[in-house]
Amino acid sequence: MRIAFLGLGAIGTPMAAHLARRWQLTVYNRTARTAAEFAGRYGADVAATPREAAQEADVVVTCVPTSREVEAMLDGHDGLAAGLRRGSLFLDCTSGDPATSRRIAGRLAGQEVAFADAPVSGGTNGAESGTLTVMVGAEADTFRRALPILSTFGSRIEHMGPVGTGHAMKAINNALLAVNILAVGEGLAALVKAGVAARTAVEVLNASSGRSFVSESLVPERVLTGEWPRTFRLALLEKDVGIARSLLEEVVVPGPMLKLAAELFARVPAELGDEADYMEAVRWIEQQAEVAIRG
Ligand code: NDP
């Protein structure tokens, strides 16, 4: 079986590397040099266009910033839609939005191509170790077909419901992460300013009921060290909070907290730059509060 993978970014690269070890792989990347380097390192064929990538593929996997880029890659003379084979499978691992995915699925159904939204969580570490959680929105039959491919880089593959529900699950997960980052950052900034040592504050928090993934893993690794490694662009988390907010509006759930988080997250990339890492939201809080949370 041949798989085509499009989007060799921070998380797409380790996912595609797992696929290269198990299946015949064709890669496409907007910046062609990245695809050539990947092929040299992991063994894969390189396609010059999305169309070329799809032409020989039984399965097409996309992992780009948003659903907008997925939809744009379908279009045009060199687009995916012009190359997709009847009966093939299209797995979108982008953290995208449900409405666009439903539209893409409808369009592909006309070409007899099955679609699943299959966003992932677990970060670049999880992608490297092949232990991602994959949240799948698809028909039951499409989910069954997708399982062996998604299991190549994921250890928990969950069928959430019809097309769009994978993206809905992912957006809500990341919105909760975003709210937590802001809350933990604000709380720790206050404690340090009140005279508590940052490391002690984090240790006590992590022995108490306010603890979370942010306080247990991300703060010790990235905030206390002041290292701010770049693994997941803050602008991408901002996009996820926006998708979650739209979902709440669509299903008519009042969401004042997510609305505020979306507004705050919209400000941070503008001030820290588009390449800032998501945990640098805490660095932004530090700047506002004129304090450093280190220890
Ligand atoms: P990156 O910004 O690192 O990479 C984006 C990729 O998409 C690159 O390969 C880029 O190509 C390509 N791309 C960008 N714009 C276009 C376009 N217009 N047409 C075609 N290709 C394009 O993002 P990540 O890899 O971090 O994220 C990808 C997706 O995975 C996002 O939806 C993100 O939210 C999600 N995700 C990321 C996680 C992480 O830890 N990084 C964790 C979980 C989900 P080029 O090389 O030319 O720039």
Task: Characterise the protein shown here.
This protein is α/β, with parallel strands linked by helices and 295 residues long. It is built from 14 helices and nine strands. The strands form two sheets. It has a six-stranded parallel sheet, with helices on both faces. Strands 7-8-9 form a three-stranded mixed sheet. α1 links the parallel β1 and β2. α10 packs antiparallel against α11. The longest helix has 29 residues. It is globular, with a radius of gyration of 20 Å. The model has no long low-confidence stretch (mean pLDDT 97). The chain binds NADPH dihydro-nicotinamide-adenine-dinucleotide phosphate. The site of NADPH dihydro-nicotinamide-adenine-dinucleotide phosphate has 26 residues, from α4, β7 and α7.
Label the overall shape: globular
* Structural Rg: 20 Å
Structural class: alpha/beta
Bound molecules: NADPH dihydro-nicotinamide-adenine-dinucleotide phosphate
Number of strands: 9
How would you characterize the largest beta sheet? 6 strands, parallel
Q: What is the multimeric organization of the chains shown?
A: single chain
* Uncertain residue ranges: none
Distance between the termini: 51 Å
pLDDT averaged over residues:
97
Question: Strands of the biggest beta sheet: in what spatial order?
Answer: 3-2-1-4-5-6
Reading the helices and strands in chain order gives EHEHEHEHHEHEEHEHEHHHHHH
Proportion of beta-strand residues: 5-15%
Helix proportion: 55-70%
